Amino acid sequence: MSERDELFGIAEVSARIGLEPDTIRYFERQRVIPSPRRDSAGHRQYTTADVELIRMLVHLRETGMPLADIAQFTGADNKVAGLAGLRVELLTAHRRRVQDRREELDRALDVITRKIMDFSDRITGSVNLLERTDCTIAFDVQGEGPLLFLVGAPAGRAGFAPLAHELSDRYTVVTHDPRGVGASRAVLGMAAPTPEVLAEDLAALVDRLTGGPALFVGTSGGAVTLLELAKQYSEMVGRAVLHEPPLVSLVADSKLADRAAAVFEAAEADPQRAVQEFFDLSGAAHHTGPDQTPPAHMSMPELPAEELEKNRYFLGQMAGPSVFYVPDIEAIRRVAITLCAGSLSHHQLARRATQILAERLGLPLVDMPGNHLGASSEPSEFAKDLKRLLEP
To answer: How far apart are CA 367 and CA 211, in angstroms?
Structure first.
């Protein structure tokens, strides 16, 4: 008997897919899955196709599809013609729900990670400080091996904490809060956080920790900081991996540029609206494959006062100079860099810009796990790929 014709008892199906026999019987009684054939003794006999259908049911159930939709998907209610077309519709709608939920969880995870860092600082008091003429930069060092700086803007120590942990078995990992972010609080008279100023802060931190070139990974605005570091301090850059610098300046789209400028202008007076509009124009929190585009709009929840204040600073002062930064292509050619983008960032602003930058530099664009937020949302897989990219 071929595998296609093989039959299984309910105990064998239970062992294969991890559902208790009573649960399988319950789904049959509720008409969530079709009733299988029976042998002469009345025992259930499941085909390979039945087993795969039940396995799919488990995935749909675990990801929150309603039982009524699952019953339609499996065809157990026997009421639907054109089952294949209905299945596509059900799965498409459910994929969108799962993606939305994943994006909500990513945002919640980011807040949780920052809080862990905040409370850890209070418990240990271990944060290191770099005194600048107009501010103080907070930084952490962990691990052993070659010196590796993780650079973000606005992401700081908290945003990189899981990734830093994953990399600390091979590198001495340095993370810092950019000026005005986290424990590097803004002070009266502090210079604006432009890529030029942020690169100078980073150079000072490199000087503090090493006398020679180092390794760098920059994500989002941090990748823009590294572009300026390569221009001003090329001798410091041993190798750099840049993940999705969101350079509106490289995308020939005047409407997009106008929208971005309007977001940054609105941030001081209405940071909630600015966050929503920046979320919509960037698409950065969505997960989009090659054949998908981010939705034009998805409503954001009301942000707490603390988050609004952070975004007033980020969108009102830091983001504009970064996304409108014009990279010096010839200066960048002097350093060893790798450009990468999220494998689930297709048709989003930052990936589009990074693709253009890669073409201008004549470099490949390397896919990385996740979307624009992959460094924080998928740190383990992201770290594995980084280790390969950072090898000499």
So the answer is: 32
pTM score, whole prediction? 0.75
pLDDT at 90: 85
Q: Is the peptide bond before 154 cis (omega within 30 degrees of 0)?
A: yes
- Lowest mean pLDDT: which of 12-26, 83-97, 120-134? 120-134
Cα–chain center distance at 69? 30
At residue 341, the 3 state secondary structure works out as strand
Average pLDDT, the chain: 89
SS3 sequence of 155-217: CCHHHHHHHHHHHCCCCEEEEECCCCECCECCCCCCCCCCHHHHHHHHHHHHHHHCCCCEEEE
The distance from CA 170 to its chain's CA centroid, rounded to whole angstroms, is 23
pLDDT given at position 114: 60
CB 254 within 8 A of CB 353: no
pLDDT at 81: 63
Measured over all CA atoms, what is the biggest interatomic distance in the chain, rounded to whole angstroms?
87
pLDDT of residue 40: 86
Q: Which residue has the higher pLDDT, 67 or 260?
A: 260
Contacts of 119 (CB under 8 A, 6+ apart): none
Amino acid making up residue 301: P
Q: How many helices (H) and strands (E) does the chain have?
A: 16, 11
Q: Distance between CA 10 and CA 20 in Å, rounded?
A: 9
Separation of alpha carbons 241 and 374, rounded Å? 14
